[in-house]
Amino acid sequence: MSAEVVRDVLLWCSVINMGLLIFSFLMLSLARQWVYRIHSKMFPMTEPQFNTIIYSLLGAYKILVFVFNIVPYIAVRIAM
Prior knowledge:
The protein is mainly α.
């Protein structure tokens, strides 16, 4: 596999993952009560617990996107 293919794959992975992250942020910003009601029906939890869990997951997801998509993309761009 050539460096150009790796670069393109990392670019599209980064775009898709950042799109999902932005979508999640918008859903939690604009429809937070609706998202909480859906999740609290499936998993009994209080609102502070929900906030802790969801923002921890989004933070971990963001770190993983940067570590496994954006940083390697930048490294491949520099190496080329």
